[in-house]
Backbone:
């Protein structure tokens, strides 16, 4: 990047807050995806919203592309800087600004780590309920920019449900205070929601006011072994009827085997079955546990459940959750192609059968690992890279696989992205889930917020 530009950036944020050494810059220019090479031109680490604004205004004057960067845990390439862009990293803007226990809100800078937000809420006997395996590294701004989902969506909804207000700097360099943290505000278009899931293409989220809630009195956790994926929607139905569920996750035996191999902890079951379900429910007292056991017995009798384990302590509950939460990390050495799909819950078994047939017919030999958030209709299709394939060869095959899967998703009335976003990974298949009219409107909206087209160019659409 041009020395004069670097000098101007340094004048805004301080000399040490602009990185130019490619080795230092590289980790800031990538996320958890493996198909692309990060090649950022420089990294800037602002410490305040005003500094973000000055950087964006400078980038407008110089027509400089910016890639916003949070926890860099994304799975769709939304935070990849592959073309010499300026990475604007929110790492230093990680402060909790305020907790209001009466309004039940927490205000923080966008770089606050999700787990820090959860812990701060807990200190006030409140809860920020959006949760996922990457909570220890992901940052709130990135969660909002991708409308992150996670493991509790069945009970609490995704990130969008918890955003009361946002302070943003638009791509044009203007500061906006969107919704001011209010519960009720019927004064026209709610621009806050445009920034949620905008993947950094409209501007930079600098500060957020998040709604909090009261934590449940207790939680029960069970893992069930299931003979056939087709049984799972009915098992979900039975448990939903009996209890207040906070999670209903599933994973295949291959997924569990990857975790047990990596962690060294054994399976809780003597016998292997193709699928397992993790059920978490609110446990106010013994009656809830009795209801859970009754639902379990019913499912053993009628709905294909073979065995089950009910956690008897918090440690056991954590160990059961670890079977699900460690899947991503356990698969990562195999550099998987990851696809987060949603289809109506009732259609999930037929969809999985359909994709299995597609894989067998057209992509034979590639290993598939299924897991996901069954309670939300959200399936994670992971395809493992054969060890002797190059990344380029694998990425090429996966591009074609992605097209075929997206066609099937459309046929089943689903969405090509349930929670990870579009980024670079899915922009070629966006038209399977959004109409030409919708895509054109999205482009027009981007032009309004980002007239010079400097904000995360090439993400979501070209
Ligand atoms: C998950 O459900 O564990 C996350 O979405 C991450 C992943 O899909 O690997
Ligand atoms: Zn997920």
Residues:
């Amino acid at each position: 990047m041009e020395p004069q530009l670097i000098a101007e950036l340094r004048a805004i944020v301080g000399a040490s807050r602009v990185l130019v050494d490619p080795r230092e810059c590289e980790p800031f220019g990538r996320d958890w995806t493996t198909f692309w090479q990060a090649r950022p031109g420089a990294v800037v680490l602002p410490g305040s919203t005003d500094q973000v604004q000055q950087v964006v205004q400078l980038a407008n004057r110089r027509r400089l592309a910016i890639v916003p960067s949070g926890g860099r845990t994304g799975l769709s390439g939304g935070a990849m800087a592959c073309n010499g862009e300026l990475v604007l990293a929110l790492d230093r803007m990680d402060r909790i600004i305020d907790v209001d226990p009466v309004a039940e809100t927490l205000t923080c800078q966008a770089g606050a780590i999700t787990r820090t937000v959860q812990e701060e809420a807990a200190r006030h006997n409140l809860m920020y309920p959006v949760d996922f395996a990457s909570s220890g590294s992901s940052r709130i701004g990135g969660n909002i920019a991708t409308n992150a989902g996670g493991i509790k969506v069945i009970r609490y909804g995704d990130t969008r449900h918890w955003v009361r207000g946002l302070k943003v700097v638009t791509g044009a360099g203007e500061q906006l205070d969107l919704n001011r943290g209010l519960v009720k505000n019927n004064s026209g278009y709610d621009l806050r929601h445009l920034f949620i899931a905008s993947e950094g293409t409209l501007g930079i989220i600098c500060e957020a006011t998040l709604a909090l809630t009261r934590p449940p009195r207790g939680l029960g956790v069970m893992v069930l072994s299931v003979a056939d994926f087709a049984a799972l929607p009915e098992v979900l139905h039975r448990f939903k009827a009996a209890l207040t569920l906070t999670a209903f996750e599933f994973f295949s035996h291959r997924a569990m085997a990857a975790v047990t191999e990596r962690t060294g902890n054994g399976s809780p079951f003597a016998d292997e079955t193709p699928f397992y379900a993790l059920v978490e429910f609110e446990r106010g007292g013994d009656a809830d546990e009795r209801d859970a056991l009754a639902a379990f017995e019913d499912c053993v009798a009628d709905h294909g459940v073979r065995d089950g384990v009910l956690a008897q302590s918090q440690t056991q509950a954590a160990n059961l959750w670890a079977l699900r939460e460690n899947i991503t990390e356990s698969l990562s050495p195999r550099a998987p192609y990851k696809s987060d799909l949603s289809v109506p819950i009732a259609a999930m078994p037929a969809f999985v059968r359909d994709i299995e047939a597609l894989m067998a017919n057209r992509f034979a030999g590639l290993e598939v690992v299924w897991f996901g958030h069954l309670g939300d209709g959200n399936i994670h299709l992971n395809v493992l890279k054969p060890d002797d394939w190059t990344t380029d060869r694998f990425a090429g095959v996966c591009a074609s696989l992605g097209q075929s899967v997206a066609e099937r998703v459309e046929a089943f009335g689903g969405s090509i992205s349930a929670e990870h976003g579009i980024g670079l990974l899915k922009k070629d298949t966006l038209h399977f889930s959004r109409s030409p009219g919708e895509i054109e409107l999205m482009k027009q909206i981007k032009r309004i917020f980002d007239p010079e087209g400097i904000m995360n160019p090439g993400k979501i659409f070209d």
Q: What stands out?
A: The mean pLDDT is 97. Residues 149, 340, 373, 380, 419 surround zinc ion (ligand 2) (CB under 6 Å).
